[in-house]
Request: fold
Amino acid sequence: MGGPKESPEYKCPTLELDGMADRYDHCKDNNDFSQPRALYCLFDDAQKQRMYGNIARAMAGVPEHIIERQLRLFKSVHEELEAGVRTALSK
Reply:
């Protein structure tokens, strides 16, 4: 569960270019949380409660360190989402 690792044998080959070239940094200005936050904020209280319960049931049996990692991601979406799922997990 250490995640993907770079394999040098699959490195892109060099390219002969005339002029300046650089790689695109796909992480720069990356915003992974604004769209899920906007969707979450559209939900009414009943929808949020159902979502918390569904997520908590789906996480049954998941190792604690993975649950905590996921809760940190939920907190990046909205603090209320993290708190709601944490509460549902404790039931």
